[in-house]
Amino acid sequence: MEILGIVGSYRKSGNTDILVQKVLEGVMNYGLDTNYIFLPDFNIKDCTGCERCKVGFKCVKKDDMQKLYPLIEKADAIVIGSPTYFYNVTGVTKNFLNRLYCYEIFDENDRSVWMGLNEVIGIKYAVTVAVCEQEREEDMGYTSLTLSKTIEAVGYRVIDNIKALHVYSKGDILNYEDELKHAILAGEKLAKTLMLREKVKSTKII
Ligand SMILES: Cc1cc2nc3c(=O)[nH]c(=O)nc-3n(C[C@H](O)[C@H](O)[C@H](O)COP(=O)(O)O)c2cc1C
């Protein structure tokens, strides 16, 4: 089993990066494997709505997302984080999320009927991490919601949404004991969820 951490901040070792890594630390406390992607290291263009992915569920756009799709598909769970940039996720995070459109399936005749590919091949799990500078949650805007709604749409059950408020400078989050602890606990819960799934899989049901 493998959990993939995905960081959508441009600041390496910044607040989002630290929190995502803390979640992975929680996962590793239970001995599960982790992998890690720092999104700005990759050239990820936005989805252009060509709809060619609706045949075969593969995106045809030739950029670095083609390196990331196999990592996403291999992972049993993801931890995805973004800082707030004007009430929403960063540009690179939004491009990444939009490119998950290839994993969304629609009924040919009724587009109000849809599901995530993972609902067909096996549900996956996720933790989201959102960070913002202001103290009030409303100033985080849609950051957390954009992350969780998008990955739910492609078939992940989100087991925790971490929201760190009032964090500004790079690395400030290291002074926030409660948030760091929350991140580790979320990682441990993710690991325990996957272990429970394995246990149930090996149990004869009825
Ligand atoms: C372009 C830009 C827009 C921002 N917009 C917001 C905002 O709307 N609300 C907020 O609370 N913080 C905002 N921030 C502050 C960042 O979310 C905050 O500094 C965060 O800790 C950065 O996380 P990082 O270290 O993971 O990059 C903004 C920062 C930048 C650079």
Structure description:
The protein has 206 residues and is of the alpha/beta class. The chain has a single domain, classed as 3-Layer(aba) Sandwich (Rossmann fold), CATH 3.40.50. The chain has helices at residues 15-28, 65-74, 91-98, 117-121, 143-153, 177-201, and strands at 2-7, 33-38, 77-83, 104-106, 114-116, 124-131, 156-164. The strands form 2 sheets. It has a 5-stranded parallel beta sheet with strand order 2-1-3-6-7, with helices on both faces. The protein has a two-stranded antiparallel ribbon with strand order 4-5. Helix 1 (15-28) packs across helix 6 (177-201). The two termini are 26 Å apart. Bound molecules: flavin mononucleotide. It comes from Sedimentibacter acidaminivorans. This is Multimeric flavodoxin WrbA. InterPro entries: Flavoprotein-like_sf, FMN_Rdtase-like_dom, ISF_SsuE-like.
CATH topology: Rossmann fold
Radius of gyration in whole Å, from Cα? Answer: 17 Å
Q: Order of strands across the biggest sheet?
A: 2-1-3-6-7
Write the element-wise H/E pattern from the N-terminal end onward: EHEHEHEEHEHEH
Give the oligomeric state of the chains in this entry, treating copies of one chain as homo and distinct chains as hetero.
Answer: single chain
CATH superfamily: Flavodoxin domain
Overall structural class, as computed from helix and strand content, comes to alpha/beta
Amino- and carboxy-terminal Cα gap: 26 Å
Shape, please? globular
| Fraction of residues in β-strands | 15-25%
Report the biggest beta sheet as strand number plus sense, adding barrel if it closes: 5 strands, parallel
Level-1 CATH class name: Alpha Beta
Instruction: Report the total helices.
Output: 6
Low-confidence stretches: none
Bound molecules: flavin mononucleotide
Overall average residue pLDDT: 97
Domain NADPH-dependent FMN reductase-like: 1-109
Pfam families: FMN_red
Organism: Sedimentibacter acidaminivorans
Keywords: Flavoprotein, FMN
